[in-house]
Amino acid sequence: MSYRIRIAAVGIAGLLLATLLSAQGWAGRGRLSGTVEDSEGESVQGATVKLTLDGAGPEEVQTDRRGRWAKGGLASGNWIVLVSKTGFVPTEHEVMVNEYATGADRPVLRTNLRQVEAGGLTDDASAQAARGLLEQGNGLLAVEDFEGALAVFSEALPSLPDGAKASVLVIIAQTQARLERDDEAIANLEKALALAPENVDALRLMSRRLTVLGRSEEAQQYLERLPEDLRADPEILLREGVDLYNQNDFEGAVEKLTAAIEGEPEWADAYYYRGLARMAASQNEAAAADFRKLLELAPDGERAEEAKQFAEYLESL
């Protein structure tokens, strides 16, 4: 995931530049873990968990007999987590990893896999065919063949019961979003929500894509349909903060970025952006504190040297 931001003039030669943030490889110090259950709350053993950051990532892991999995060596960033098993509808999540987080600050992902039930299909042959297509689609996603996966999942849709169909529509929409086909993604999310109005993944993805497209008021409507503890989406708040910064609304940017930090207190990049916004708003002491916080959270991160220079400059004023 990347954000483009224009840095305001601060009087330091060599620090006036346009910054495009992007992940530099997937390897780091972070760790992500989770549990996988079926629709009855029973642990799912042997589910495959594939993690990718900007299309790359470590080897897949399998859930144990208690449905648990874990993976270390991850860089900070917004990771895509694909959970799949034969006979179940694949589920994909986006989760933010901070490689400098420890203990309770590390996210724990909880996945509910919906089984493809033969009773929801026309006959056993259809059930078997649908399971085969879902497995084939999983494999294509794993090797980044997005067009192939879209074709296979679309073929499976007519044979699926409504609950499973909604989950697959979300997977299709996520894949289309990766390909920057947002109109198609939004249309499929609307279909998913018509079948399952409380589908959290569909609501979250819809709000994020609408925010990316500058349709913030519509995005807010979907956020409000999420459970209360999931409504403050730090990723959306950060993106909105960056947009406000680029519109020279520095006070508004600080407000949005502060809200993002409240949701993700250990997110180093959020302090970097808020530091820039505060610096542009002449809140020099607070800006320096944000850059120092980034150095505390990510002393070896790609923004560390830049943050150090900003902090030293502001503290010398």
Note down, in words, how this protein is organized.
This protein is α+β, with helices and mostly antiparallel strands and 317 residues long. It is 47% helix and 18% strand. It contains 11 helices and 10 strands. It has helices spanning 124-142, 146-156, 162-178, 182-195, 200-212, 216-223, 234-246, 250-263, 268-280, 284-297, 304-316; strands at residues 4-6, 18-20, 27-38, 48-52, 61-62, 68-74, 77-84, 88-89, 91-97, 108-115. β4 (48-52) and β5 (61-62) form a beta hairpin.
List keywords for this structure.
317 residues, alpha+beta, Immunoglobulin-like, Serine Threonine Protein Phosphatase 5, Tetratricopeptide repeat, 2 domains, 4-stranded mixed β-sheet, 18% strand, globular
**Superfamily (CATH H level) name of the largest domain:** Carboxypeptidase-like, regulatory domain
The CATH topology of the largest domain is Immunoglobulin-like
Count of helical regions = 11
Range of helix content = 40-55%
- Supply the number of structural domains: 2
Distance between the termini: 34 Å
Please count the beta strands (DSSP E, at least 2 residues each).
Answer: 10
Strand order of the largest sheet: 6-3-10-8
Secondary-structure-based class equals alpha+beta
> What low-confidence regions span 5 or more consecutive residues with pLDDT below 50?
1-24, 118-123
The amount of beta strand, in percent, is 15-25%
CATH class of the largest domain: Mainly Beta
What is the radius of gyration computed over CA atoms, rounded to a whole number of angstroms? Answer: 21 Å
Which helices and strands appear, and what pairs or packs with what?
Layout: E1 4-6, E2 18-20, E3 27-38, E4 48-52, E5 61-62, E6 68-74, E7 77-84, E8 88-89, E9 91-97, E10 108-115, H1 124-142, H2 146-156, H3 162-178, H4 182-195, H5 200-212, H6 216-223, H7 234-246, H8 250-263, H9 268-280, H10 284-297, H11 304-316
Parallel strand pairs: 3-10
Antiparallel strand pairs: 1-2, 3-6, 4-5, 4-7, 7-9, 8-10
